[in-house]
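User: Can you model how S-adenosylmethionine sits in this protein?
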Amino acid sequence: MNTDPGIFQAPQLSPNDFKRLSALVKRHSGINLHEGKQELVKARLNKRLRELGMSTYQEYLDFLQSDATGDEFIIMLNSLSTNVTSFFRESDHFTFLSQTYFPQLRARKAEHDRHIRFWSAGCSSGEEPYTLALVFKEGWADLGNWDVRILATDLSTRVLNNAKQGIYDEPKLADIPRSLRERYFTPLKSKSVEQYQVKENIRSLVHFARLNLLDPWPMRGPFDAIFCRNVMIYFEKKLREQLVNKYWELLAPGGIFFIGHSESLAGITHKFQYVAPTIYKK
Ligand SMILES: C[S@@+](CC[C@H](N)C(=O)[O-])C[C@H]1O[C@@H](n2cnc3c(N)ncnc32)[C@H](O)[C@@H]1O
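Assistant: Here's the modeled complex, given as structure tokens:
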């Protein structure tokens, strides 16, 4: 181990190291690091090796495999996961919610049942579940008489920490209509960048937790809607099929399942009813 930063040389990632690393990543997260991702892996992990004073990937891989706490896996997956997201991403899903699904859901709820449960699985830095909360605030009349909770989970502790704070640089708010921005975001006085924080009345609807979708799920459901958008694209068909069927189990009858616009359930055995592209019903 070399801890002198002055003589640190960028570690080389041999084809063998890459193979070993991708097998570990796949086993622990489902994420497929395809051939050709070597440069990306190096760009993201070399810094970590430097912090640890390691000069070879072999050393790092041995360390990962001997780390019984699993902490280094969390750090590694924080670096390797792709967390691109935005407010109102794939906005027709939110239009579907307020125009089509909310009236159905309201009609379906029994007189005494005032609980609504949504799950954003693979929520990244929080834009997706906060958009859901905004849509509820705007589109569900007498919301105060209902117990609405949005569970938001992700593998990456790094993005979850940002999500919990609900603080975003101004450009991230580009897709939020101005009226909503003014109603639900507080401008923060900060040194250089213009930042906004999601207001407490929106944040309180969302509960963030770490969950690796490959691990056992502690929740029992039922959920009225599940969003798992742009997460399973990194997974192989068998894993996608397992997850899709687990989502089906956790949804209430009539509950809706949303996937990303570049995804489909084609070729997967499942019991969902097709509603519209990327929208499915139990
Ligand atoms: C591209 S983001 C999608 C965010 C959001 N759903 C959207 O569509 O904008 C994918 C997210 O899935 C998470 N992810 C990847 N593998 C996961 C796993 N095995 N368990 C839980 N989350 C995972 C990543 O950490 C990342 O934040």
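A couple of observations from the model: The chain has two domains: 5-80, 92-167+199-281. The chain has a mean pLDDT of 93.
User: Helpful, thanks.
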